[in-house]
Specification:
Chain lengths: 225, 411
């Protein structure tokens, strides 16, 4: 079943001297439970494409249908709400809230969703356990390794019960062992929870794990295997 | 959790937060301290004026205050004293003959105001008897006694038992002379008062002026100055007939000395003005600090927006951070300023050698601080309002952040 349907997507930046066509007519369909890598050289448009899919940026042209919603039609307030309830994000630099503990970081997104305290605490504990962080609940990000922080970041992304998780270069700041651990964990979650993961990456190890690789260059899909 | 994040964010850069807290503390300390000093100084001046010079309420013949004519007297003053003394708020009431005179010795002369008083009644109304530093206050067994101020004694070279000649116009307009013996010298904090006021027994002055059984002034003193208005109303009602018939005119100390009243109002105005100036400076410090904090956390705020935190919640978080700073600084500032005010309220701030200069304008050389509860509360509220208003601009800056730009910076 298709959870994301992208039709003739364009994004042109006009605030530069010369207009830049970062995304130039991409059409793509993502099915539920995919483990997909968006790859391409630097400046190919993969991050812009990911931002458009995540509702962080608005397309110049084309449609992004997530479920039955065309996110192009949502205003900024609706987009924030949509992101909160339907999309999980994993960032390259982890981007946890430094003053909150691991469990608080995971629970925070559920608080934004209005989930009661007891319930969100219970869910956060379960997610930290699933991501291999049992015993690290009360550590602040600064007290965790890069790999552990990224695991918290994945747990946070899962906490909102999203339709899919967008991970922009999630392994870029990790060493080989941490990368391997993280990818195994995400692959396991993909299998066990049927959670859809979409990565943008240069990392060969991510590509090796991905079941689908979409290659983008000059804002266009050049291969989809 | 937003409040918790805001609170914890404060301590990410401890030095910066502590600087702002210190600025709030110093601001409140400055505002409350200066108010304590000014209000204390004025309060002492007012209390001294009431205790030694004016009392709380005075009765005169209606024209007496316009023109201190010796024949503008109140007949049968004891009836008013009796009524006043029946009120529980009244500490005492006295009657006075007052006339302008020339006081002279063998070496010098100066104009004075002579107060003919009943010493035992006067003691319940004014505190001059407590200010006698040499000799005694007036008593019945002395021979034509006079109590003079230190400044006058210095000016006329008077000592105890010196003879003081007063020249005045009696009730028939005839210039008359009288000799008094200095039995005591007093000193208040008001040099000008000490130089111009002398006290004799009412009967002695009555004989000299030819006025008996009548007075120029009935002074009423209260236990609590706050009750002046209330007692004034009660007495106005009791003496309604006499006031309507223009036998007497009754006034409070505020009406007798409007300058004192306006001095109190001016002090309050300047205290708040000073506080507002401090708060404006504080506002700039908060704006600067919070803007820096926002710029440093640009990426983090962008990420919060990306994961679904609304702009309203981000705005609230930043507002709370500033408010917490103000509350912490405000509480510490209030506690410290309370300590400062209590210390100087107890021990006083001694102006030492500058004190003599202050007594020329009617102020004590030691100032005992005084701050009303209302001023503490207002200071705290104003600091909080300033903090909230100052955080609006940095908060708006944060709201203008685009999560895409923030994420682009992140990666």
């Amino acid at each position: 079943m298709s959870i994301i349907q992208i039709n003739n997507l364009h994004k042109t930046y006009t605030d530069t001297k010369v207009p830049v066509k970062a995304v130039n007519g991409i059409s793509l369909s993502i099915e539920e439970g995919e483990f997909t890598a968006i790859v391409g050289p630097s400046g190919s448009g993969k991050t812009t494409f990911l931002n458009l899919m995540g509702g962080l940026d608005t397309p110049t042209e084309g449609d992004i249908l997530i479920g039955d919603k065309n996110i192009k039609d949502l205003n900024s307030r609706q987009l924030i709400d949509f992101r909160l309830h339907h999309i999980g994000f994993v960032f390259q630099s982890y981007n946890l809230i430094p003053v909150l503990t691991a469990i608080e970081n995971v629970a925070f997104i559920m608080e934004l969703q209005g989930i009661p305290k007891k319930e969100r605490h219970q869910i956060a504990m379960e997610l930290l356990k699933k991501t291999g962080l049992e015993g690290k609940e009360n550590y602040r990000p600064g007290e965790l390794s890069g790999g552990q922080q990224q695991r918290v970041s994945v747990a946070r992304a899962l906490a909102s019960k999203p339709k899919f998780i967008l991970a922009d270069e999630p392994t870029a700041n990790l060493d080989s062992a941490s990368t391997e651990d993280l990818l195994n964990m995400m692959a396991e979650l993909n299998k066990s929870e049927n959670m859809t993961f979409i990565f943008s990456t240069h990392d060969k190890r991510v590509m090796d794990k991905a079941r689908r690789i979409v290659t983008i260059d000059d804002g266009k899909v050049v291969s989809d295997v | 959790m937003i409040a918790s994040i805001a609170w914890r964010n404060l301590w990410r850069n401890k030095l910066r937060s502590l600087i702002i807290i210190a600025a709030v503390v110093v601001g409140i300390l400055g505002g409350v301290g200066s108010d304590g000093f000014m209000e204390g100084m004025v309060d002492q001046r007012v209390n001294t004026a009431i205790a030694n010079e004016l009392s709380n309420i005075q009765l005169h013949q209606p024209d007496f205050l316009l023109n201190n004519e010796i024949n503008y007297t109140i007949p049968n003053p004891d009836q008013y004293i009796e009524v006043a003394n029946q009120l529980p708020e009244v500490k005492g009431a006295s009657k006075r003959l007052i006339c302008g005179a020339m006081a002279s010795t063998a070496t010098a002369a100066t104009s004075v105001l002579i107060f003919g008083i009943v010493p035992e009644l006067e003691k319940k109304v004014t505190g001059i008897y407590q200010k006698v530093y040499s000799g005694n206050y007036l008593t019945d067994d002395q021979r034509i006694p006079v109590v003079v101020g230190k400044k006058l004694a210095d000016k006329l070279d008077l000592k105890l038992n010196s003879k003081l000649i007063v020249t005045l116009a009696d009730s028939s307009g005839t210039i008359t002379y009288g000799a008094f013996i200095v039995v005591g010298m007093y000193q208040t904090s008001n040099n000008l008062y000490d130089e111009a006021h002398i006290f004799v027994r009412i009967n002695d002055l009555g004989r000299l002026t030819g006025i008996t059984g009548q007075v120029h002034e009935v002074a009423i003193s209260l236990f609590d100055n706050e009750q002046t208005g209330q007692v004034f109303d009660k007495l106005s009602s009791s003496f309604k007939q006499h006031i309507n018939n223009k036998l007497i005119d009754m006034r409070t100390w505020e009406q007798l000395e409007p300058l004192l009243k306006s001095m109190i109002e001016m002090t309050a105005f300047f205290s708040y003005l000073f506080l507002v100036i401090i708060l404006i400076a504080l506002a700039f410090a908060i704006i600067n600090t919070m803007t820096m904090a926002i710029l440093e956390r640009k990426r983090e705020i962008g990420m919060l927006m990306a994961i679904g935190m609304t702009r309203g919640k981000i705005f609230t978080m930043i507002m709370l951070e500033t408010l917490f700073l103000a509350i912490v600084g405000g509480m510490v500032g209030l506690l410290m300023s309370y300590g400062l005010v209590e210390y100087y309220a107890h021990y006083g701030l001694d102006f030492g050698s500058m004190g003599s200069g202050m007594s020329y304008i009617g102020y004590d050389s030691i100032v005992y601080f005084k701050v009303t509860d209302g001023f503490y509360l207002t200071s705290f509220i104003l600091v909080s309002i300033t903090a909230v208003l100052s955080s609006i601009s940095p908060s708006i800056k944060a709201l203008k952040l685009n999560p895409v730009d923030a994420i682009r910076e992140l990666n």
